[in-house]
């Protein structure tokens, strides 16, 4: 097909005819019941960026995810030819996905550089990804060079060149010295955008030999340095003052090209003495202050988010006290292709007509190419139902089986855009998605919305019936919206009843019933009244309410907008509040609020507390109404009102309230206009045009307001143009493809004249130059259809009438309707911290795929089953955690140990949730078990009893056994020694003997897993009391066994005395024998204060340890060594000291190779090791 063909006569008429018969795009709901079984061509949901620079130390991961029904298969091309993934053992394609993981360990990473493109295919079409250019990050070495020393005179300009090696991506440049301290930069010494160091003029302080340029390469996180540069500044022939000149850029003019949306960076570095000041301006225009910023002491100007208006001549001016210099940079703005309106998916019924549009812009103008199922449309099989004209494809009378995926490619010299849009031909009978028999309740005179969401192909036509008989038509009081919703603007009781919606297309019919109940409003019939009560008396506020009998009311009383204090003096009845024994602190405003599930009403009154016996008795009453109202000084916009005040009744008038009645727009309604001080009886009133005024005045004193005065004479003002525009203007999309512009309408009083209308204007922000507009009347909103999804619009609403327009309205930014997110989070990983806590990580979706305002992510997870084979699985309950904002991780608390969990993640915007991520399962480790289910004591006897127990309700792992601790409790409640018994997991009973009779025992039982013991269950029990009477008394001294025992003890004592006598004769004499006999505990032996050795106990003859003395822990005795050497207490002299000088080595004895050590260890145990043994 000729892609450059012109628009031929008659084709426009054909297109208009097709568009007039074209069916609007059908939205497929995300209800799984609806989606199940619906075929769908592939849609790319995730892909890597077009330019992918990888780190050679890590695997290459090229993302390609797609959805469709059936699930698509994936293939790849590299450099335009088929890439056989299965033949390369280093390349892995993730199951169920097109994502490639390339293991480049041990390989030349350059071999995998190139241009990759992913294809997703099923029987309904083929979608393709962007062309993804894969390049390896590079951090080349600095070329070897020898820098000559620089010698300059003071005052001259100087440039130190950096010229780093070209890396991918480019390196970050900075200058430091040999001590890794950054060089101090100022308006005299600065670093240019290319990394060179510029001196506008040099000073002797600039002399140094270590000017070093560093280049940091971001991907590989490596830093390389240039050889140091030496600079010497002489002052024997200094340079004099001079006018500014430019060091960069050179000359008087230069050019700069920047792409739309990027950041414009302009730089001017000047020399001169004194150091020049730099300023910037734009010839013939103003600098964009909201997007502009200065850097590098105003030598660099940056403009972010460049648009076409930023092109032009930018002038930088360098100034010192000797003159100025100018340089003009001519900026040209080009643009890579960008979307005006990307093609959208179409769902069509057989014989319907659809249109795909691919609207792009760019500079130069992009060339648009169409593809179908990844094949150029010129090479695709010819289809007479398909017509292509530049950015439009029209599909006429589509047939079943003609589903396909179309690709639009727009390119110019600066880049390209590529989008997939499928055309899905479906024939589906209607389905009603609104739940049946739903009951809607509203209050009388409020709007009612009855929903009938439906799906079908062709799009079903929705009709409504009331009470299964009366057909509901558009018009008062009913409005049937495009989505099938029935709206009743002002619901009345007669609108209650059963409503039936019927969805119909050529393939079938489906009906659904809903019910509307219109309730009576809640109203306060008798309001509480102002009370003046003496201290100590009672105050009663009445609040009688009428409400719909089917609604449950709830009465609440407030004092000064806060809750009533909990005081028994306050008595709240059904329709009243009584305050007994009134005190000064009870003074205030009391409000009764009647709430129902649908509405509420409230009323307030004030309580004033006065003295119980005021002397003399003064009666305070409301003032009398003012009289003799008169209008003077009458003009178009003002009038003077005067009156005579009424009797004050012992309470001075605090103010006068002036009200007006608009007899033209709101007859019978009095509106507060202004108030004046109680000392004044004149007011200058500002008026509005086109109002029939009548005024009245009320007096107010401490007791309250007077009755209103008699109305004044009528005063009419002439019409005029509106003084104001509607307020609360906003633009919010309620559904994809629309923008609802709403505002608060002007009242008739504010209209200033007849025939009030509103001029609604809108345009897409940063895209459209001209405003679209529409004049509307008697409405407070306007719906713009056919908008792109979630894009900003500029909005204005202006009031106008027969006498002119209101002031120029301000611009409000609104957003078109959001759509459900397209993508699901990827790379879901779960880190299990412990048996009850896990942390989930995911890769956030791309912002364009959110298709709305990102609200956060929802994590759905549920316990699938226990990992314990014998444990019964509880009912599975899905849990949901929402993480707000652009998060990529979250924690899942409260998990059940030793369980298998399953989770998915969805992205969330204001429209709803996106598709779920790939399901991820994880296991929680074992935890400690719960307590045994029961512990019973049975079969009590004189000296034994039996225990029975049940396994824990929650094992939380593999049960390892049970631990039983028990101890006796005497009559003074003192606990005896604890005894511990261990049991296997299958043991649940034990009979314990050899117990004391008539003794209370306390039993503590816990279950355990490999993670430890769980909670303890406790039981107490008495053994049976011994009630038997001994038959005879036995004299123990006459028993043979007792006599033999005493003889053995006497013989043992004799042997010990003989051994001690021999030992004493063999050992040396020492003067502290008595102390030794008196103090057998080695822990309390005396020590010398100077060196810590034991006093008077050392025996230098045979070096044997004495009784009651301490020896080193390795069993040896130190000899002939200094007591002050700390090395002797360590291992090989490796003792260490803390920062405060304290020794932290191991306090072990020094090893001695002596024959008397026997089998004892030759190495002393470390105190640290000893501590570890208790952990």
Structure description:
Helix content is 5%, strand content 43%. It is built from seven helices and 87 strands. Strands 2, 5, 6, 9, 10 and 11 form a six-stranded mixed β-sheet that branches. Strands 12, 14, 17, 18 and 19 form a five-stranded mixed β-sheet that branches. The longest helix is centred in the C-terminal third of the chain and has 27 residues, at 1040-1066. The model is unreliable at 1-25, 1029-1034 and 1068-1175 (pLDDT under 50).
List the helices and strands and how they pair.
Layout: H1 11-21, H2 32-35, E1 40-47, E2 51-54, E3 60-62, E4 64-69, E5 73-78, E6 81-83, E7 91-93, E8 100-102, E9 114-122, E10 125-128, E11 132-136, E12 150-153, E13 158-160, E14 172-176, E15 189-191, E16 197-199, E17 208-217, E18 222-225, E19 229-234, E20 242-248, E21 253-259, E22 264-267, E23 269-273, E24 277-282, E25 292-295, E26 300-303, E27 312-320, E28 323-341, E29 346-348, E30 354-357, E31 359-363, E32 367-372, E33 375-376, E34 386-389, E35 392-395, E36 404-412, E37 415-425, E38 428-432, E39 438-443, E40 448-450, E41 454-457, E42 461-466, E43 470-472, E44 478-480, E45 486-488, E46 497-505, E47 508-519, E48 523-526, E49 531-534, E50 539-542, E51 544-546, E52 554-559, E53 562-563, E54 570-572, E55 576-579, E56 588-595, E57 600-610, E58 627-632, E59 638-644, E60 655-662, E61 666-677, E62 682-686, E63 692-700, E64 715-716, E65 727-732, E66 738-744, H3 748-751, E67 757-764, E68 772-776, E69 781-785, E70 792-801, E71 804-805, E72 812-815, E73 826-832, E74 838-843, H4 847-850, E75 854-866, E76 879-884, ...
Parallel strand pairs: 2-11, 12-19, 21-28, 29-37, 39-47, 49-57
Antiparallel strand pairs: 1-4, 3-8, 5-6, 5-9, 7-8, 9-10, 9-11, 13-16, 14-17, 15-16, 17-18, 17-19, 20-23, 22-26, 24-27, 25-26, 27-28, 28-31, 30-35, 32-33, 32-36, 34-35, 36-37, 38-41, 40-45, 42-43, 42-46, 44-45, 46-47, 48-51, 50-55, 52-53, 52-56, 54-55, 56-57, 58-59, 59-62, 60-61, 60-63, 63-64, ...
